[in-house]
Structures are given as structure tokens and as C-alpha cells.
């Protein structure tokens, strides 16, 4: 879930409520602008991955016939879209995939967590990732199976808003499955062209009126966890190469990080999980002590990484503190100094360029991604998230990067 600030109240960021409130109070309040011609709209680029492999991608529609859709009663089955990122070869013959399909781009333009960016001024559909559509997979040494990582985005965000990190992991040999949570994300486009938009703003307004916000937060996380576990059930059908089922990880930003850790708590197929600034309680403020999720109340016996915005750690966020107190597996808590909530998304690369091109106030950028230099924020995430999964899933030496402070990354604080 990506932070944004409402003019009518304090910043709210926990799991769902912050995003939904911002969507209603800020995003929908933005004037409906007529889209500028594409030539005059801002076009964006993303950082190229740094690993030894080029990246391929394929997308899949998944249908869970055993689960009615929890958000739309008229739908008898839960439908998801996922993108699979993987190490590839011979990519020159295959086009680079769009970050957002046209329907997703239109939905993101109408409802997103980039508060203050006017509608119709950014060509969201023009951004290309460094993943090549349908490229053949790279051959692993001696037919070795690849480790797998699931990615869950923040509430209201599309699965593609974590492209920088997911492409990075794929370029380093991982198969990464990026999951869209239908009726949660801003817009999900299916192969037949149908676009399903978020139901959460209206759900939040109703819950606020009825006094059932905690119940809505519980439901939102439960749906996400069920989505991730269903994807695990379909792994073999998704990946274009052999997968190592003993080396499955999960990570996400905000509510996606919450879902990743909760899914690990609920499903022993997940061996390690990373949480990028996601609160682990059903609360509207990070420092609210409860009610706790079961992953926080019980802890887990497998490796956990938390990376928080500046000021968030297991001493200041009660749900993280509970996880630290009750967990028995390895736990690593890092703070990226100068960061904010959306630092752990592609907003880090996007927002500074948007603001510069459109003459938007610097506060819009710093409220979302903090004061850390964007290129340094990207470098830190590319270093520490892969190092965590390398150590816990591949059992590879990370050169001591995760053992303590590094002169290469002075922005990173290890929290004891």
C-alpha cells in the first residue's frame, strides 16, 4: 500500500484504510482532466536490472473454481492475473513488456496512490519494463531447478508497481510470480480485454459508516493470503522451467508485505519472506498496538526480513515488535534512512520525473518516497532483498552484507 497525504487529515497508512481513505478523499477529488495528447504527456523509464540474465515474462489468468469471489457476490469463482518473471535467453527477438496494459493504465490514472499527480498528464501505458514478452527461459546448469519468489503489491497498487525489484530478482536467476489481487488493485486487465477496478474505496466508506473497519482489514488480508496460496497450488502450470519447491519465498510492499509474512505463517511451503514497510496488525496507524495478525501474535520459525521507512522498526511498530518477541526463526530488521512508505515501489523512479516535468511541489515527492536519493534507494533494495533470498533460499554466501553495517550502503541501519 502506498502512502499519500490527504488535505483533510493526517497521513494514514496501515494495510487498507490509508489507501482507501486517500483514494476517496484525495484521488477521487482530483479534477477530471482531459488527457493531453500522448506526445505531451510525461513518459517514464525504469532502471534496468543488473543481474547476469536478461529477463523474460509471461502472464496467466488463473481461476479458482473452489472459491467464490469474496468482493463480488455475483462471481462464482475467484479470478486472478499473474505475471511470471524469469531468467531468459535470446531476448532480442521478443518485445519488452509494458508495465501497464491500456486498461490498467487508464484505471491507474483514475485511481492511484500518487496523490497530487493530475489525471491525464502521465502516459502510464508507455512505460516499458526490461522483461521480454515470451522470451525462452535460460538453461540452468545441469538442469537445476530455479528458486521461486511470490510478489504481492500494496493495497490499491497493480502487481507491476514492483517491477524494479521483481525484474532484478529474475535477472539474478529467480522465477518471480507477481500477483494482482482483483478488486483490490486499481485496475486488473484480463486477456479478453475486461478490466476490473478496485472495490475497496466504497468498501472502506461503508465500513467506516458501520464501524466495521477492523473486519474489512481482516478480510482484505485474508483474501490476499488465499490468493497467494492458490498461486502456490498452480506453480507447475505457471513457470516455463523446473522450479525448486524447497526454495519458495514471498515478499511485498505494505499490505503485500503483510500478506507475504501471513502466508508464510499459514503455509509451510514458503521458506522465507520479506516485508517492505507493511504493518502486521488490523490498524489504521503504524504505532497502534492491535489487534494483531496471527503472524505477529504467534511468530514464525522461518527467516523474516523487515525493511521499514525511516522511523519504522520492531521497537516503534508494535506488530513488528510482537513478531520479534514471538518468532523463533532468523529475523533481520533494516531501516533505509531518509525513506518513506512508497520508497519500496517504482514510485521511487517515477515520482521525481513526474514532479519535475509537471512542475509539482517537492513535498509531493518527499511525502511519498522520502529524502533519500532515488538512485541510492534503488541500489539498497537491489542489494539487500536479493541477498536475503540468496542466503535463505539458495544458501549462498552474501559476502557478509546481511551481517552488519556496510560502507557501501551507509543509508542502511541494522536494528538490534
UniProtKB/TrEMBL annotation:
GO MF entry, a single one: 1-alkyl-2-acetylglycerophosphocholine esterase activity
Keyword Lipid metabolism (UniProt): yes
Highest taxon listed in the record's lineage: Bacteria
Signal peptide segment: 1-29
Pfam families the record matches: PAF-AH_p_II (PF03403)
GO biological process, one term: lipid catabolic process
InterPro entries: AB_hydrolase_fold (IPR029058), TAT_signal (IPR006311)
SUPFAM superfamilies assigned to the protein according to its UniProt record, in alphabetical order: alpha/beta-Hydrolases
Keyword tags: Hydrolase, Lipid degradation, Lipid metabolism, Signal
Name of the protein described by the UniProt record: Platelet-activating factor acetylhydrolase plasma/intracellular isoform II
Organism of this sequence: Streptomyces violaceusniger (strain Tu 4113)
Highest classification ranks of the organism: Bacteria, Bacillati, Actinomycetota, Actinomycetes, Kitasatosporales
Amino acid at each position: 500500500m502506498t502512502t499519500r497525504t490527504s488535505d483533510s487529515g493526517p497521513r494514514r497508512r496501515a494495510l487498507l484504510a490509508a489507501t482507501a481513505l486517500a483514494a476517496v478523499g484525495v484521488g477521487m477529488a482530483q479534477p477530471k482532466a482531459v488527457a493531453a495528447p500522448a506526445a505531451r504527456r510525461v513518459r517514464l523509464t525504469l532502471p534496468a536490472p543488473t543481474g547476469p540474465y536478461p529477463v523474460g515474462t509471461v502472464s496467466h489468468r488463473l481461476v479458482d473454481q473452489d472459491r467464490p469471489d469474496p468482493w463480488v457476490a455475483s462471481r462464482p469463482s475467484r479470478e486472478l492475473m499473474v505475471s511470471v518473471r524469469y531468467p531468459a535467453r535470446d531476448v532480442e527477438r521478443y518485445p519488452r513488456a509494458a508495465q501497464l496494459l491500456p486498461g490498467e493504465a487508464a484505471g491507474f490514472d483514475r485511481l492511484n496512490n500518487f496523490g497530487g499527480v493530475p489525471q491525464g498528464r502521465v502516459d502510464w501505458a508507455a512505460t516499458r519494463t526490461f522483461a521480454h514478452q515470451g522470451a525462452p527461459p535460460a538453461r540452468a546448469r545441469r538442469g537445476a531447478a530455479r528458486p521461486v519468489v511470490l510478489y504481492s503489491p500494496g493495497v490499491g497498487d497493480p502487481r507491476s508497481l514492483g517491477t524494479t525489484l521483481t525484474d532484478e530478482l529474475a535477472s539474478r536467476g529467480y522465477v518471480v510470480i507477481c500477483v494482482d489481487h482483483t478488486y483490490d488493485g486499481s485496475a486488473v486487465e484480463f486477456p479478453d480485454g475486461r478490466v476490473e477496478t478496485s472495490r475497496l474505496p466504497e468498501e472502506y466508506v461503508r465500513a467506516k459508516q458501520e464501524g466495521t473497519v477492523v473486519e474489512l482489514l481482516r478480510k482484505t488480508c485474508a483474501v490476499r493470503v488465499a490468493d497467494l496460496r492458490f498461486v502456490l497450488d498452480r506453480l507447475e502450470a505457471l513457470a516455463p522451467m523446473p522450479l525448486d519447491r524447497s526454495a519458495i519465498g514471498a515478499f511485498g510492499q505494505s499490505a503485500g508485505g503483510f500478506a507475504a509474512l501471513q502466508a508464510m505463517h499459514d503455509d509451510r511451503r514458503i521458506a522465507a519472506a520479506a516485508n517492505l514497510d507493511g504493518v502486521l496488525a488490523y490498524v489504521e496507524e503504524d504505532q497502534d498496538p492491535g489487534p494483531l495478525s496471527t503472524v505477529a501474535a504467534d511468530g514464525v520459525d522461518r527467516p523474516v526480513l523487515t525493511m521499514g521507512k525511516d522511523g519504522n522498526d520492531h521497537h516503534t511498530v508494535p506488530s513488528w515488535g510482537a513478531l520479534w518477541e514471538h518468532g523463533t526463526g532468523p529475523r533481520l530488521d533494516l531501516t533505509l534512512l531518509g525513506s518513506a512508505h512508497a520508497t519500496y515501489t517504482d514510485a521511487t523512479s517515477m515520482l521525481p520525473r513526474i514532479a519535475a516535468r509537471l512542475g509539482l511541489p517537492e513535498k509531493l515527492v518527499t511525502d511519498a518516497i522520502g529524502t533519500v536519493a532515488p538512485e541510492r534507494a534503488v541500489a539498497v533494495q537491489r542489494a539487500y532483498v536479493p541477498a536475503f533470498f540468496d542466503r535463505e533460499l539458495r544458501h549462498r554466501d552474501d559476502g557478509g552484507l546481511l551481517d552488519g553495517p556496510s560502507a557501501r550502503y551507509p543509508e542502511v541501519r541494522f536494528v538490534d
